[in-house]
Amino acid sequence: MDYGKEGLDECIATLQKNNISYAGAGSNLEEAIRPTYVEKNGSIIAFINFMDRNSFLEYS
């Protein structure tokens, strides 16, 4: 996290204010692991995002 907790909180607030879905981030573990859902043409898609803390590889 380049800008620490303040940067993360600001980013999440900006996304929410602009009604932009996000996954893989939050103020606590429960929020961070929560998927985001997008409905398109009658189908619902769930997005999740995780990072390996040892290798810093990201999985979506």
Notable characteristics:
single chain; 60 residues; alpha+beta; two-stranded antiparallel sheet; two-stranded antiparallel ribbon; globular
**What's the shape?**
globular
Provide the gyration radius in Å. 13 Å
Terminal Cα span: 17 Å
Spatial order of the strands in the main sheet?
A: 1-2
Rounded mean pLDDT score: 89
Indicate how many domains the architecture comprises: 1
Structural class: alpha+beta
**Which sequence of SSEs, written as H and E, runs from N to C?**
HHEEEE
Strand content: 15-25%
Q: Main beta sheet, described?
A: 2 strands, antiparallel
Q: Indicate the low-confidence ranges by residue numbers.
A: none
Number of helical regions: 2
Helix content: 25-40%
Strand element count: 4
Question: Can you describe what's shown?
Answer:
- The chain has 60 residues and is α+β, with helices and mostly antiparallel strands.
- The chain has one domain (4-59).
- It has two helices and four strands.
- The strands form two sheets. It has a two-stranded antiparallel sheet. A two-stranded antiparallel ribbon has the order 3-4.
- A hairpin with a 2-residue loop joins strand 1 (36-40) and strand 2.
